[in-house]
Amino acid sequence: MRQHIFLSPHLDDAIFSCGGLIHHLTTHGDSVLIITLMAGDPPNPVPNTPLVKALHARWQIGENPVISRRQEDRQAAAELGATVHHLTIPDCVYRTANSIPLYPNEQDLFGDVHPQDPARNTLNSVVLPQDATIYAPLGVGNHVDHQLVAQWILANPPQHLYFYEDYPYSANTQNLLNTISKFPKTVISDTISLTPKDYEAKCRAIAHYQSQLSTFWSNLDEMKQHVRQQLLTTGQGTLAERYWTS
Question: What contacts 120, CB < 8 A, 6 or more positions away?
Fold first, then answer.
């Protein structure tokens, strides 16, 4: 039984992007572990930035929303038959250097990784099993945390490595094409066919991220419709997710 490890920058990325494949693997007897990398508690005091204020107001899950978000992540993984491990790196919106927030505004999330960002060194201390198949984000959408994970895994590539398309950012075809054209390695696509049960399980898992749904969709029905359309577009008329390898 091969072990599959999905590297998730945040407490939702792996399942948003790869939930269909994860369900397919577990229902066929394979072991799936999701490692959520930026799942740590925010510092105390929490950075008093416009971005943090806006996010906490939107999520409506308390002063330390990460506690609830980790629970959402565990429930979503269990829905697909996977297990999850949370690392202690805080989300970029909480990271500081000398008590100064590194990403205080929304536009900072999609720019360059801050040269003083401590997350890079922390990631470099993470050791992955060499015999597992690893799935990492391409970095579609250019979110700094997705960039960091992609850069880290490219600098320390495991033997069995696939890159996944960061959904919902990848729903914008131009975002995906831009990422592939600028990617440091030449990669080729591998489209994985999914069943209706894989799609339905993916939607059930995504629905566990109640705090995050309003960021991308107005309601559950819209989420299901958008996810289905993305899978059909990827599979050119059949349900599929696409992965990339060198």
Answer: 113, 148, 151, 152
Question: Pairing relation of β-strands 96-97 and 100-101?
Answer: antiparallel
Whole-angstrom Cα distance, residue 246 to residue 236? 23
Cβ neighbours of residue 108 closer than 8 Å, sequence gap 6 or more: 51, 102, 144
d(CA 114, CA 123): 15
Selection from 59, 47, 54, 52 nearest residue 12 by Cα = 59
Are 151 and 138 in contact by the 8 Å Cβ rule? The answer is no
List, in order of start, the domains of the chain with CATH numbers. 3-245 (3.40.50.10320)
Note the pTM of the prediction, 2 decimals: 0.97
CA atoms of 127 and 156, how far apart (whole Å): 10
Mind listing the pLDDT tens digit for each residue in 126-157? 999 989 999 999 999 999 999 999 999 999 99
Question: 120: closest CA among 164, 150, 86, 163?
Answer: 150
Per-residue pLDDT band for 61 (boundaries 50, 70, 90) equals confident
Crossing angle, helix 65-79 and helix 13-27, to 10 degrees?
30
Q: What is the DSSP letter of 238?
A: B
Strand residues in 56-123 grouped as ranges (E) = 83-86, 96-97, 100-101
List pLDDT tens digits, range 146-202. Answer: 999 999 999 999 999 999 999 999 999 999 999 999 999 999 999 999 999 999 999
Which tokens hold the place of 130? 């060499």
pLDDT at 80 over 80: yes
The rounded distance, in Å, linking the Cα atoms of 152 and 148 is: 6
- Taking alpha carbons only, the member of 86, 78, 68 closest to residue 19 is 78
